[in-house]
Amino acid sequence: MSIFCLLWVPFFYLFRRSFSHNGGSGVWALILGSITAIIQFFLGYIISPGGFGFSRFLFGFVDLVSVPVLIPCLIYLIILIYQKFSKSIDFANFALLWLIPVGALRAISWGSTNDPIFLIMTPLLWVAVSMGISFFINLMISKFRWYTVIVSIICILILPALSCIIYWAFFSQQTMMGFGLLIAIHIPLGLSLLFDIKKSEVTK
Question: pTM for the whole thing?
């Protein structure tokens, strides 16, 4: 399971790059992601989870599945603003590269627990949230209508919260709900891949 945590993000990144060639300030993503991963590795968790209540949900949001993805998305937005959106926009590419060193150090720190919630589900949620946020941002840009903007913003807000609910569901042994929501959160990922493949075929 530690191998999965180590390799899932880079594997998915390389798979997506095989048909998507968007930019994403890749060097900065790897450097900043490595710095963040090292800091998190030595400082440990920010939230101390307790039981099955709100602190457990907050732990999932801050330390596990949501903030680790939201930070690179926010940094990438700042880079785009600084560059005045002069380059192609790809939030997923930046976030996935950022998460490669994070996943590597998490695989080391979580390896002794042998917990599938950490070692398997968490990398899956990282990729799903990264791709989902990128998908809805691209949807707003490509089909700029008031209704697509509203729906996309709502979905972007829902994805991080949904990932925490999925973590809580599996932790609470609500397996059926956890798997159902896990499938649902991967729908934007699947749509994003389909659009990327279609776009790559058109540009050939």
Answer: 0.92
